[in-house]
Amino acid sequence: MFFVRTASEQDLQRVQQILHETWHHTYDSIYGVKKVTQITENWHSMRRLQDMRHTPQSEFLVADNGTVIGGMAYATQKDKTINLHQLYVHPDFQGGKTGLHLMIEIENSFIDADKIRLEVEEQNTKAINFYDAFGFKRVGEISDCGEDGSGLPALIMEKLVMYAED
């Protein structure tokens, strides 16, 4: 059983490892090993992860069971919209409730938001099915997922935020 908490500096090396392994597991067959390696070296560099921890209006979470970190999520808020930039569960822990717990905590971290938005690779059916089950709807497409000039097409999905009852 994983519990969700804010990521610390000491978590970053394991988070980086999770991102690299999960990206290769998920995207090697879509983009190829070389492209995925380039993306992960850039997007998941230690400097980027450190910057994420200090970004205003953000939440950087890990799913921790006391022995290992099995997943992570990162989101920012702009105006009334939560932008979910990353939600990854290591392949060894997918299919449980780790992603669900990360998503709920992200939603509850931004109390004045009214919707949550994300970009997802249109061939990543596992992730799309997860977001569909969570109530996300497709609202558009983008040709540069992740950052300008990436050349990675993606679906844009959104849903209204539903806060957990106390």
Describe the structure.
By secondary structure, this protein is α+β, with helices and mostly antiparallel strands. It has one domain: 3-Layer(aba) Sandwich (Aminopeptidase). It has five helices and seven strands. The chain has a seven-stranded mixed beta sheet with strand order 1-2-3-4-5-7-6, with helices on both faces. Helix 1 (12-31) packs antiparallel against helix 2 (33-43).
Number of strands: 7
Query: What is the count of structural domains?
Result: 1
Share of helical residues: 25-40%
Order of helices and strands: EHHHEEEHEHEE
The name CATH uses for the topology is Aminopeptidase
Question: In terms of topology, how is this protein built?
Answer:
Blueprint: E1 3-6, H1 12-31, H2 33-43, H3 46-53, E2 58-64, E3 69-78, E4 81-89, H4 98-109, E5 115-120, H5 125-133, E6 137-142, E7 154-160
Parallel strand pairs: 4-5
Antiparallel strand pairs: 1-2, 2-3, 3-4, 5-7, 6-7
Helix pairs in contact: 1-2
Quick synopsis:
The protein has 166 residues and is of the alpha+beta class. 36% of the residues lie in helices and 30% in strands. It has one domain: Gcn5-related N-acetyltransferase (GNAT) (Aminopeptidase), CATH 3.40.630.
